[in-house]
Amino acid sequence: MNGELPCIVATPPGPRSRELAARLSAVESPAFDARRQSRAAASGEEQTPIVYASGAGSNVHDVDGNRYVDLTCGFGALALGHAPAGPTKAALAQAERLTLALGDVYASEAKTLLCERLASLYPEPGARVMLGLSGADALTAALKTSVLATGKPGVVAFEGGYHGLSHGPLAACGYSEAFRAPFAAQLGDHVRFVPYPGAGDDLDACKLHVTRALAAGDVGAVLVEPVLGRGGCVVPPAGFLAMLRAACDASGALLVCDEVWTGLGRSGAVARSLAEGVRADVLCFGKALGAGWPVSACIGSARAMAAWGAHGGSAIHTATHFGAPPACAAALAYLDVLDAQGLAARATAAGERWRATLRSATADLGVRDVRGVGLIVGVELDGGGARALATSRRLLAAGWIVLTGGARGDVLTLTPALDAPEDLLQAFAPALADALAPLVS
Ligand SMILES: Cc1ncc(COP(=O)(O)O)c(C=O)c1O
Predict the structure, then answer these.
(1) How far, in Å, from the CA of 313 to the mean position of ligand 1?
(2) Which homologous superfamily is 15-70+342-435 in?
(3) Which terminal Cβ of the chain has fewer Cβ within 10 Å, N or C?
């Protein structure tokens, strides 16, 4: 059984969660407590967190003995849910044999096998792989690749796009100006943002924005999420990626597809861009890759990556824990399960059925849109971010864990395990209908 219905025995957050949350807020960055306070003020709902004790499949138990259904699964990283058997066993066995090799000097067998496997995902021979620990690491490698390959530092990125918060990707992060503003002086001015088109938007208008941004001639990369994830589960119109491919071909910029959220099954494909018939020069994967273990990858065509070898003999991009053997072993095990269980196809079918059920369960309840692809599901609410926060809190009280996202914070963002039982997903629909906070007009 990899998923059971919620069982709440102590109103969340229970006393042990409250105690641990208070102790943590006293010692961690004050940013997180400040965010909770501002969210509490905006939503009128307390935002004290629960504290996780254990997880199995689609369920999480908190330290007060409550069982939840986790519809976020580690921001989408736990593609097989919590403590998945194959990757967990592989990582632990590897850790007992060899915990750390010597990075780019002396590698492990696990790293070698993973790089081979990832290179084979690129649809052209000669692809090269750079491993990292986080999605932001993969994006950093991609951005460095683009300037090495083209000699051009400029980047075209999208409003609403999220690529991670270390400096390189942060500079290209159009999700929230508040993330960039305090660090603006450290980020440079090489990124031009253009609007990300939603389902009904005009592709010609989007093309015009992109072409204008490329016209300056200094752009080495067009950086795009095939579906906006954190930006609100926005699915662009058909032909969007193909249009970007053509614009890159005309300008000489690399097309970098950030598949950290969409990739490796979640959007119903190993790579959303490839499923749409578009070959990016560089693909970035993260999240699902390690099934919860920290590993990410930047995979580039032979042509795009050649510049790293032409650099003159220094290993100019590496880190101590890149390619750590346990995470590589977990990733290999995840890729096996992805293939063997046909998880991408399952995500497509289960996601379509789930969105249909959610739509009918919430009709007339102030839900503006239920959208997504595969098991990326966004439920956009009327009433703004405050209502979304209040609704997510009511869901927590009922034992369902969800996040809010989107530029205005008004989208409930659902990224369940790709193998979550469908009856569990379906059971969320009445729970959501019950939890939807009243719409104050
Ligand atoms: C599309 C996308 N790219 C990159 C990242 C950054 O990944 P990480 O948080 O592992 O650095 C995220 C994280 O949510 C993401 O959604």
Answers:
(1) 30
(2) Aspartate Aminotransferase, domain 1 (3.90.1150.10)
(3) C
Q: Is 75 in the pocket of ligand 1 (CB under 6 A)?
A: yes
Q: For domain 85-340, give the CATH number.
A: 3.40.640.10
Report the alpha-carbon distance of residue 289 to residue 21 in Å, rounded. Answer: 30
- Is the CB of 225 within 6 Å of ligand 1? yes
* Assigned token pair, 217: 């001639």
What is the residue extent of each domain of the chain? 15-70+342-435, 85-340
Burial 183-196 (b: 16+ CB within 10 A, else e): eeeebeebbbbbeb
Is there an atom of ligand 1 within 6 Å of 230 CB?
A: yes
Q: Per residue of the chain (441 residues), what is the pLDDT tens digit?
A: 479 999 999 999 999 999 999 999 999 999 999 999 999 999 899 999 999 999 999 999 999 999 999 999 999 999 999 999 999 999 999 999 999 999 999 999 999 999 999 999 999 999 999 999 999 999 999 999 999 999 999 999 999 999 999 999 999 999 999 999 999 999 999 999 999 999 989 999 999 999 999 999 999 999 999 999 999 999 999 999 999 999 999 999 999 999 999 999 999 999 999 999 999 999 999 999 999 999 999 999 999 999 999 877 788 999 999 999 999 999 999 999 999 999 999 999 999 999 999 999 999 999 999 999 999 999 999 999 999 999 999 999 999 999 999 999 999 999 999 999 999 999 999 999 999 978 876
Residue 152's identity, in one-letter code, is K
Q: What is the pTM of this model?
A: 0.98
Q: Which of 163, 228, 293 to mutate to test the pocket of ligand 1 (most atoms within 8 A of CB)?
A: 163
280: nearest Cα among 310, 304, 309: 304
Ligand 1 probe mutation, 260, 267, 296, most atoms within 8 A of CB = 260
Ligand 1 close to Cβ of residue 229 (< 6 A): yes
| For ligand 1, mutation pick of 162, 257, 283, 321 (most atoms within 8 Å of CB) | 162
